[in-house]
Amino acid sequence: MPQRIFKMHNDGMHAAISTGGGLAAYLATFSVLVPILWAVYVLILIAIKLPELYDKNPLFRRVVDRVASIVRWRRGA
Length: 77
Description:
Elements lengths: L10 H46 L1 H18 L2
Helix pairs in contact: 1-2
C-alpha cells in the first residue's frame, strides 16, 4: 500500500496576500472614484443653478450674452 505524504499548505499566507491585494484595489478605486463623483455632483448643482443666476445677476447675464455673441460671430451666423 502506498504511503500518503501530507504536505502542509500555508493558506493563511494566501489569504493575507489576496485580502491585502483586494484592500489595495478597493482603496485605489475608492480614492479615484470619490473625487470623480464629487466633481459630477458639483457640475450638476452648477447646471441646476445657472438659469437662476442668469435671471438674477445682470453682470453674469451680460457676460453670457457677450460670450454667446462672440461665438455666433465666429461661426459666421
